[in-house]
Hints:
Order of helices and strands: HEEEEEEEEEEEHEHEEEHEHEHHHE
CATH class of the largest domain: Mainly Beta
Helix content: 25-40%
Strand order of the largest sheet: 2-1-11-10-7-8
Strand content: 25-35%
Radius of gyration: 26 Å
Distance between the termini: 77 Å
Largest sheet: 6 strands, antiparallel
CATH topology of the largest domain: Tumour Suppressor Smad4
Amino acid sequence: MVPRHAQPGPSEKNEPRFALRFISGKYQGGEYPLAEGQEIVIGRSSELDMVLVEEMVSRKHARIALADGNISIEDLGSTNGTFVNGEKVQQGTLREGDRVLIGTNILKVVAAPQDAEARANLKAMAVGRVTARQQQPGTRPTEEAPRMSGNLEEIPLPDLLQLFGTSRKAGVLVLRTGGREGRIYLNEGRIRFAEFVGMSNVPPLKAVYRMLSWTLGSFALDPPDTREFEGAVDVSAQEVLMEGFRQHDELGQLRAKLPGRMALKLPLAHHLRELSDEELDTLEAALNAENLDSFLDAAPGADLESAQALQSLLQRGYLRPA
């Protein structure tokens, strides 16, 4: 005879098994418990379980419920949609670690704390936060839109770009890590420009590919910037991610084969006049660079393209390790 699973008692059944943690948006850091048999209706209306006061959230936006150990999510006909891990959904199932985008808020499904004191604190904090949200005045259309922000450790840049691409977000994605700042300009979820603050010579796609390697730091989605940029692009997040990952992998392998510093190889195996203008630019950048990183900064092309051009000059006898 197959033994039956023990049924939870009344007190256990009401204990939260999961929590919805705000990892972006103006409620960042807050958590809302989710217990077996519980249903949470999310929206802008003050009568709901979880109240998110912002214009991008519909009055009744979405429903999340836990039944028989399964977490379900349903969009309630919202204007701007409900997204799970970057995909727009009408109905679906959530698992621990999934991210839900509602308006400018990103919620992550996490396991509830195990000890009784932490569980009690979680339930008490949730009640306080819901009450506080209900007391906030409604957002008027003339007010500035809520700023979406968070940490790259919680939401990596590739996930953000995919999320913003699917939800067709517009704005300036500001990234900060280790004293550096990068900006990605989005229009309807597509990338139209990118730059490093203080480095005006880096082409936009080269900048984005580099930012994809940033795993620590913060992000914030600022309002759209309608300026016209010289060298503007128009590419989807998916295109950038596919090409960026390919270049990152190949560049990592190529870096191990390239010297830190380079010098002109004398006597020259071939005449300099045999080089194209682009190759002469690469040669000049290599001779002026203190190391490989400064060469890649100065080279006009994408990092992988520049590294391949450098390898070609080394193999053809124009350059040697310094």
